[in-house]
Amino acid sequence: QAAAAAAAMGGVIEDVAEFLFEDAEFGTALETFAKDNCKAFADESEEHKLEYTELYQKYQGLFESKLEAFLSSKGHTSEEFMKACQEAAEKGEEEDENAAFLTFLLALCDYETFVEMMR
Q1: What is the rounded distance in angstroms from the CA atom of residue 19 to the CA atom of residue 22?
Q2: 3-class SS at 89?
Q3: Among 19, 10, 1, which residue's Cα sits nearest to residue 87?
Q4: Is 0.85 topped by the overall pTM?
Q5: Which pLDDT score is estimated for 54?
């Protein structure tokens, strides 16, 4: 039974990976957000404007709402996904192939990465 639970936990991460890489609507939503807001990042100075933080929060909200809707459509909860991520991170890339995906996912959610992407 423990093995089945572990497989289910890994399954939710695999479902999310497939969604992020293959769902056209998700990709289009992020691309549209970037196109609509990239002008705010045209200033090449090292200083970060308050507007960057506000746009980052909107980006996170968009990302989270799309992810939560996807999880719900597959019968998963965000709590299940978080638990699976935590378990994969604790095992590390040597023991859990999903840990590498988590590194990618964390980069998607990182403020500095967001600012670089928007520039």
Answers
A1: 5
A2: helix
A3: 10
A4: no
A5: 97
